[in-house]
């Protein structure tokens, strides 16, 4: 029972990630970033001052951290004060048009008449946080359709913005974060699919045994846990929704793995957990196979190949369970014929 409690506690502890996360500039959690073929990178200005840093997420969202005694102001699209973060916490200028344009990824929100970039800032205190994440439209492609060069040759790399800039003010000293936007085509999904087939065949042959099922369950649990850590570390407000969705099948799998061999619920709990974890991964991470930029701290090849392995292990486990069920159905009939004879 201690093993069960420990395994469940390890999964539940992922929820503790939410304790020290950056505030979102618009007061809502952005959820999981979507896989994409757009790569946004910072080329200079990631550390504009001592104690001040800026990083970019997979979907182009910027996160600014200020643990210094200085006040950092993020300038909006018309060079007006937009966000301010310092010793007194996080503030947002309600007169800045960026306050409204940044509420959606497409800047489709209408800007009210009260917003005026030339007016004196009207600061609203959002929180005491020293970290803020926001979606800045200067760092990503805003067109409704791909750029002409991407449309013509989507399988090639393309530099879309050789230089994007987000201006900052650090105690009235002007500086800027500079970066680049690149189109990187998705790799072929054939390799992960081949891994799924190979691993699936192996699982179908071995998961009908006690040891084989346990090893399969441990492998799927390890893959699921790796993706939970990778996805949660890559979002501004962990744990990621996809990670939370893995909690229930993950708990079922842990219970199945630690139940003794003679327990009649062991096979059902383990099989349900294996298939459940793989199903959640397919629903939440399936598009990892068809995009180059992934919202995870795992490397792209590791993320894709491990997903292929998880899918194969689940399918193989179902095949093995079906074979076992057929053998058990035949056994009473054979025993009955022997008794008649």
In short, what is this structure?
The chain has 341 residues and is α+β, with helices and mostly antiparallel strands. It has two domains: 2-15 and 187-340; 38-183, no CATH class.
What can you tell me about this protein's structure?
The chain has 341 residues and is an alpha+beta fold. The chain has two domains: 2-15 and 187-340; 38-183, no CATH class. The chain is built from nine helices and eleven strands. It has helices at 2-12, 98-101, 148-152, 190-206, 210-233, 241-245, 247-258, 266-285, 300-340, and strands spanning 23-24, 38-44, 52-56, 61-66, 72-75, 81-86, 89-93, 123-127, 131-135, 158-170, 173-183. Strands 2-11-10-5-6-7-8 form a seven-stranded antiparallel sheet, with no helix packed on it. Strand 10 and strand 11 form a beta hairpin. Helix 5 (210-233) packs parallel to helix 8 and helix 7 packs antiparallel against helix 8 (266-285). It is elongated. Mean pLDDT is 87; it is low at 1-21.
In total, the number of domains comes to 2
Cα-to-Cα separation, first versus last residue: 47 Å
Structural class by secondary-structure content: alpha+beta
Quaternary structure: single chain
Let me know the number of strands. 11
Q: How many H/I helical runs? A: 9
Helix content: 40-55%
Unreliable stretches (pLDDT < 50, length at least 5) are: 1-21
Rg on CA atoms, Å = 25 Å
Spatially, the strands of the biggest sheet line up as 2-11-10-5-6-7-8
Question: Approximately what portion of the residues adopt beta-strand conformation?
Answer: 15-25%
Q: Categorize the overall geometry.
A: elongated
Return the average pLDDT rounded to an integer: 87
Query: What's the story with the biggest beta sheet?
Result: 7 strands, antiparallel
Order of helices and strands: HEEEEEEEHEEHEEHHHHHH
